[in-house]
Write a structure and sequence with these properties.
single chain; alpha+beta; about 40% strand
């Protein structure tokens, strides 16, 4: 049974763009190696956080949307915990309504990129 998940994670702000891309690629590789299907990746860029975490007030935000078996989430979160560059992460299982909303959002973003 493949479930629809969405994970958002924050990387430390001291990374270069290249290092941030490599780190995101590492996590998507963890997913694809374990049989997950990546639906969407978004780089939200550097944002100010609501409160300081580890004495940092900004971070690079990334969203990855994927379909996977429930056991893969534990492997992904273990990879997040082992990586020093990750400040925070959160993975959420989407219900059917959230999945429909995410699909509409993806379509809207792809139309903006085409224009």
């Amino acid at each position: 049974m493949m479930n629809h998940y969405e994970t958002v994670f924050i990387l430390t702000p001291v990374l270069s763009d290249e290092q941030a891309k490599e780190t995101v690629a590492k996590f998507t590789q963890v997913l694809t190696d374990n049989g997950a299907e990546i639906l969407n990746e978004e780089n939200w860029g550097m944002k100010k956080m609501a409160y300081a975490i580890n004495k940092k007030s900004t971070g690079f935000y990334f969203l990855v949307e994927f379909k996977a078996e429930p056991t893969i989430v534990a492997k992904l979160e273990t990879a997040f915990r082992r990586e020093e560059k990750v400040i925070r992460f959160m993975t959420v299982k989407l219900d059917k309504y959230a999945s429909l909303y995410a699909e509409k959002r993806r379509n809207k973003l792809s139309k903006k990129e085409e224009a």
